[in-house]
Amino acid sequence: MTILFLESGTDATHTFIFYIGVSGTVSSSTAQANTGLRSISIAAGAAFTNAVRIPWGTPRRLSLHMRFGATPGANAVLLLFSTGTGGYLYLGRNTSGNLFLAIDGGATIATGTATLGNDTWIHLVFAWIRTSLSVNEFRVWVNGTIDLTATDFSTWSDPVNNTIYIQAGNNTGAVSFLDDVFQDDDSSLTTLPDIRVTAKLPATANTSGFDTDVGTGAVNERPLSVTNGKQHAGLTDVQENYTLQAASVGDVDLTGATIVGYTGWVWAKRGT
Asked: Are 153 and 71 found together in one domain?
């Protein structure tokens, strides 16, 4: 199993640089947070209108937390597996608050039994395998309990443009929120535990070989900024590296927590 995507609801950067795209009215918000200090606010709107986008393929598992502002007045799209043509798969929430699976705006393939309420964080896990147009399986868990299963349904087209649109606010008439996004390539069609995603910032410099401070020289600013940082103009290789905040320091106290995975990143540029 390989972890493919981790995102902390914009805690790390207050931006969307880890997503492959953002559409419409989507923002980094302090109004609600499942983990840390922020989440992604997604305004209500038509399908494809307000969304963040991540890659998709098969097999995959996707874990995330959503918080709905209202029950939709018409069927609402939560996840849309874009194909670049017809035959796309989407998972939605109906006017009773239940999940449903459908193809391309057509007949419903399967409907869940759990009622997804408003103004509370809900943990959703999705697992799927797609072998061909009609050989496939899709499962959904709500707060750890299996809620929806569909097998060998027809016309799920190839993932030509490899994009999942996540748009929790679609057709609800109210802002909804997204946090703690995790994706791996596990093929077991099993659920995931209540995975949370947070950020740890650079702390003390272990080695500081860059020759010039930009502004204060700080490298742990949020939101991302070019006002402060480090710069090096020399022709020889040097190192610039830092410790991270301790487990108990920062947005979330991780003392005693099980670390499922992690990723490091650097925001930098090379001069001419």
From this structure: yes
